[in-house]
Specification:
The chain is mainly β. It is 0% helix and 46% strand. The N and C termini lie far apart (49 Å).
């Protein structure tokens, strides 16, 4: 093939949007984030952060990372081609809503995922009072949805082609811990 017929795009930024500590009440709406070396959107510590009708593509690690964001909401958005996890809500995401999103091609090929467990998921969520509803999760190297916490409702999601490159996983997966098993309550998968 003639190389002059192709366009090459290279990311030069680690993150495309970073929310620092204790900045609250943020609306991210109708934006397209494309090409980050690490996480396209990195949110840490705060409350009332909303991502709506936005697109995140080609992330070197996670599409969206939310750590300790209370009342985090992502709706009507698309996350595509995250080398690790599409939506990484690793800890402290109380009262989160994940609704009407499309998350595709998380951990799309071997060698791209981060080391250790809990990596390569479509959605990873740890928090209480969480709703995950009406999402489409396709082509994931590990779990479609991996969740921990109390008062979690997971309903009406379409999950296709998961566990492509790792085992001990599932379309929807949860685990209590290795040494001290944690007891969770009021969890509904519908």
């Amino acid at each position: 093939y003639n190389p002059n017929n192709y366009e090459v795009k290279v990311s030069t930024l680690e993150n495309l949007l970073v929310k620092s500590y204790n900045v609250d009440h943020i609306l991210i709406q109708s934006l397209h984030f494309k090409g980050a070396n690490e996480d396209a959107i990195y949110l840490e510590k705060g409350r009332d952060v909303v991502i709506n009708n936005s697109e995140v593509e080609f992330s070197g690690i996670n599409g969206v990372t939310s750590l300790n964001i209370e009342d985090f909401k992502i709706t009507n958005s698309r996350i595509n081609y995250s080398l690790n996890t599409g939506l990484n809500m690793r800890y402290g995401n109380e009262n989160a809503i994940v609704k009407n999103n499309s998350i595709e091609n998380s951990f799309p090929f071997q060698g791209g995922v981060q080391n250790l467990d809990n990596n390569g998921n479509g959605i990873l969520v740890s928090g209480n009072n969480v709703l995950i509803e009406n999402n489409i999760i396709k082509q994931t190297g590990f779990n479609g949805i991996h969740f921990l916490g109390n008062n979690i409702e997971i309903k009406n999601n379409l999950i296709q082609e998961f566990c492509r490159y790792k085992n001990d996983c599932g379309g929807i997966y949860t685990f209590g811990g290795s040494k001290n098993i944690t007891t969770f309550s009021n969890r509904v998968i519908e």
